[in-house]
Every structure is written in C-alpha cells, then in structure tokens.
C-alpha cells in the first residue's frame, strides 16, 4: 500500500498487466473498438487499454488494473456492463456508458452505481476523455482523473489516497479520500504483491513512500471491532449576547467569550456534526461579574468524549444607561445597486469565490448605497463582522441616519455553501449527504444553497458539483 504509483516504462509492461487481470472478467483478450485521445480509431483488449492509460496518465498500470478490479469486482458490475438501468436516474440512458474506477459513485444508499454513471455520462472535461462512452475512454480517461487529482497531488500511494496527509496543501488535511473502505489500501496492495510474486519480481528495486509520524505507537492499531461512530465534533457553538474569540472552529477547543455588563444570564447552544453524538452542559447559565468557565462535552456513539471550553468574561455591575432617542431627520430613500454581484429580492448572490470577493471588507466596493446609510454585516451565526468570509446566511443590513432598525436587510446565498462559512469543501458535501439521508435539518435558505444545479433536489449531483469545484474542474454558477 506504500508503493509509489508512478509509471515506470522500464518495468511496467503488458505481460505484467495481463497477469494482474488474470482471473477477472478483463483477463481474456477480447478486443473493443473506441476512439483514443488523439481521435484515432483503436481496437484493444483490456490489458492494452491499461497500458495506454499508463502512458496517458503516468500512473502504474498494474495499480490501475487492480484498482479497477477492486472497485467493480473480478466479475464486473453494472458500472462496466454498458447496459445499466438506474433506479435513481430512470430517465437517463446509460447504454454504452462505463466507469471502470467507480469515479463519482457516491454511496448515498440509493444508487451508487447510478451516481458514477451519471458522472460518466454528463461529465465534460476533455482531458479526462469525458463522457465515457467507450471502454477505452473510461479506462484511459479515468486513469488521468485519478492521476491529476490524486497521484500528482502527492497522494501517490494507495495509503495516501485513503488517508490524505495533504503533503502539498492542495486540498486540506484528511478530507480528500478516494475510497470509503478502510481495508481498500491493504486489499489493493495484496493483489499487486501477488502479481509481482507471480512474475518473480519481488527482488527488484521498488520505490516506497512511507509516512512517519511523531509519537507513533510501538504496535499496529487493531481494525475497528464495531461500526459505531467515533465522530464527537461540534458543528456549531454559540453563546447568547457573547462575542467569541477566536471564531468557532470544530478543531479549536478553547474560547474566550466577552459578555456585556447587563447580561446576567446567557444561553449556550451547540450542535454535533453526527446525529448519534450527545451534547451535554448546554443551556441557560447565570453569569456573575468576573470569569466563568463552562465545559461543553460531546460524546460519540461509541463513547469517546471531546470537550470544548468556554471562558465567559463579564465586567461591571451597572445596568445599561437610559438613552433618549432624538428623532432623526427624514432620510433619502435607500437604493442598493451592484454591477458585480446579483440581487434577487433581498437575497445577495453572485459572489466569485475564486476571486475571493465574498469578504466583508470588500462589500463597500461591490455595493453602491445611498449616501448617509450605515451598513452592518453579520456572519451566519449572527455575529457582527468587519472582515472575513461571507457565507450562506450572512446578512447585510442598511440603517438610515439616526435609526436603530434597518431599512433593508440582504441575506447572502452561495450555492454549494451548506454550512455558511463561505467555502465549498467536504464539510458542505457531508451536510448535503446527511440532509439527503434525513439526518440533518436545514432551513429553506440552506436547502437552496445545497441545490447547486437548481433542479429542486439535493442529491449526489450537487455533491459532485462541490467536489468538482474543489478539484478546480468546475465552477458552480452563483448568479
């Protein structure tokens, strides 16, 4: 599982690929017609196609062959039958569509094969030879998809494709995994080993990439003995009336919260990422003058605990001063205009996340507002901000001179941003999946944000859009 997956033309040959495929449905020498990446007609068997895939993608052809066998099984599956009928996409014709590596086959409990073939049919990236309407294109183009997205991103072993240590910083640590199966790297490596052993090549020089971590245990960790969730992270953590420092992050466990003098009580609310996790020590708290520590505990389904510590700080004892409001002069009518963003009623859309213009500090340059009006920006949790990302649920309020109530409030909508942090990543994909499975509740705005293709549904198509956007292969339309 630690062998480098790079193609070595001096070692990787057709005979080795044939041996790797022996015993599988690809082990015969049946030829299939297709059009290669240069537009030339070809007639090749499976082993020859995997060799062409190695040349086009620079990936180890024996690895590619074993990856395909592991994904679609030695006997094949609907992904490679060319005649699959999807229960999820009954209106789509998948005749002659193939997906040899199950790319995009998200397991959302409905039709993972259909999800993968939907990607194979509707994909448009010519570098990956999409759509995969021939076995050649699916094998060769799919190999390039794996190579560009994983091997060339330093996920160049089976281990690193399962456990992303993010050596080059392209995706962010841990989230960019190829397969969900914990045992997949070992299973693939075992089959590759048998291929080399069968050819008497175990004594040759190999390149291994083995990550070495600090504080590693003396022995191997056992495989999980059950399927109970270990997820004990919080998705949200808020304190009524409080300003939290730093801003909440699921992997930061200590916060300072400043409360106004008159806040003698406060409400601590929190929500766990996983529906089976149990959150305790939340609710109403009295807040005396000085410092108060609250430890919010999250227990996973298996019983693992994670603690988030809040230090509440309240100074002074005087009640808020009585103020007298003087009627403000009549303000001119509010007008909000923009040539860059898009206004749909009171929804503010059209942000270019790649250009980074969904920042609070840039709004004054993006919006033309009637003179005299004050603009107040809040993030999705309701905290006033002057800088940082705007996400779905952020608000922009406009106040007439001398007025404490806003004349108009705009709510930000970013398609694909399901958690309101202004980024499109695996967190959003997870929320989409959990919502699809009925394990995550979301209000109308966030459901709309999850529906990236605006077909009125939240499903694997939308998750694929976020994934492709994250990979830099697609930009989700925001207007």
Question: Can I get a quick summary?
Answer:
With 479 residues, this protein is α+β, with helices and mostly antiparallel strands. It folds into three domains: 14-199, no CATH class; 234-314, Immunoglobulin-like (Sandwich), CATH 2.60.40; 333-478, Type 1 dockerin domain.
What is the strand and helix layout of this fold?
Elements: H1 14-21, E1 32-35, E2 41-44, H2 46-57, H3 61-72, H4 112-122, H5 135-149, H6 158-162, H7 184-198, E3 234-239, E4 243-245, E5 254-259, E6 265-272, E7 278-280, E8 283-286, E9 290-299, E10 305-314, E11 336-337, E12 342-344, E13 347-349, H8 363-366, E14 368-369, E15 374-378, E16 384-385, E17 395-399, E18 408-412, H9 426-436, H10 444-450, H11 460-470
Parallel strand pairs: 5-10, 13-18
Antiparallel strand pairs: 1-2, 3-6, 4-5, 6-8, 7-9, 9-10, 11-14, 12-13, 15-16, 15-17, 17-18
Helix pairs in contact: 1-2, 1-3, 1-7, 2-3, 2-5, 3-7, 9-11
Which terms summarize this structure?
Immunoglobulin-like, Type 1 dockerin domain, 3 domains, 11 helices, 18 strands, about 25% helix, about 20% strand
Describe the model:
With 479 residues, the protein is an alpha+beta fold. The chain folds into three domains: 14-199, no CATH class; 234-314, Sandwich (Immunoglobulin-like), CATH 2.60.40; 333-478, Dockerin domain (Type 1 dockerin domain). Helices cover 23% and strands 18% of the residues. It contains eleven helices and 18 strands. The protein has helices at residues 14-21, 46-57, 61-72, 112-122, 135-149, 158-162, 184-198, 363-366, 426-436, 444-450, 460-470; strands at 32-35, 41-44, 234-239, 243-245, 254-259, 265-272, 278-280, 283-286, 290-299, 305-314, 336-337, 342-344, 347-349, 368-369, 374-378, 384-385, 395-399, 408-412. A six-stranded mixed sheet has the order 12-13-18-17-15-16, with no helix packed on it. It has a five-stranded mixed sheet with strand order 4-5-10-9-7, with no helix packed on it. It has a three-stranded antiparallel sheet with strand order 3-6-8, with no helix packed on it. Strand 17 (395-399) and strand 18 (408-412) form a beta hairpin. Helix 1 packs across helix 2. The longest helix has 15 residues, at 135-149. The protein is globular.
